[in-house]
Amino acid sequence: MGCLNLTKTGLAMLISAQLAITTTTATMTQAEMLGTEAAISKYVQHSDRTFLMDELQREEIRAEIVRLGVDPAEAEARLAALTDAEVASIMVQMEKDNAGADIVGTLFTIFIILLVTDILCLTRIFNFTRCVR
Predict the structure, then answer these.
(1) Those residues with Cβ within 8 angstroms of residue 72's Cβ, 6 or more apart along the chain or in another chain
(2) Is 52 within 8 Å of 75 (Cβ atoms)?
(3) What total of structural domains would you count in the chain?
(4) Would you state the pLDDT for residue 89?
(5) Residue 103 to residues 45, 81, 97, 107: CA-CA distances in angstroms?
(6) 76 with 53: CB under 8 angstroms?
(7) CA neighbours closer than 13 Å in the CB half-sphere of residue 4
(8) I want to staple 45 with a disulfide (CB 3.0 to 4.6 A). Which of 75, 84, 92, 96 is the partner?
(9) Are residues 113 and 124 in the same domain?
(10) Do the domain assignments include residue 30?
(11) Number of H helices and number of E strands within the chain?
(12) How many whole angstroms separate alpha carbon 73 and alpha carbon 91?
């Protein structure tokens, strides 16, 4: 009987030690400062991917994809397979390529056109120009 109690006690101590070691290592955490950029980057990447998926759902986009000979389901699968860096690259390219995004260039072009028409005496908008006649 004494041997059985010794075995039970030893086994209980071994299981208790294992439990203590497991809970100690499982609850250890490493605290560090987390920057704002790192905290929101996961959500930004998710929203970018969601935005692109929503764009693929638009009827005119789907019609253009089909016209080009691409299956819309395959396009969605390929978009889902892109890495976060590739999605970010697509978003940057879309921001650069927005139609009418260059307001300064558009206003400068209009100014030059009006200036030339003033110089050619077709309009009289600016007081600082003289006609060439």
Answers:
(1) 56, 62, 65, 66
(2) no
(3) 2
(4) 85
(5) 28, 35, 13, 6
(6) yes
(7) 1
(8) 84
(9) yes
(10) no
(11) 6, 0
(12) 21
Full domain range(s) for residue 131: 101-133
Q: Is residue 32 part of a domain?
A: no
* Strand stretches in the chain, DSSP E: none
91 and 119 housed in the same domain: no
Q: Is the pTM of this model over 0.85?
A: no
Half-sphere exposure of 124 (CA within 13 A, CB side): 2
Write the single-letter amino acid at 11: L
82-108 pLDDT, tens digit per residue, is 888 888 888 888 777 665 556 777 788
Q: Which residues, 6+ apart, have CB-to-CB distance to 120 below 8 Å? A: 131, 132
Q: CA 107, CA 92: separation in Å to the nearest integer?
A: 24
**Residue in the block written with tokens 């998926």:** 53
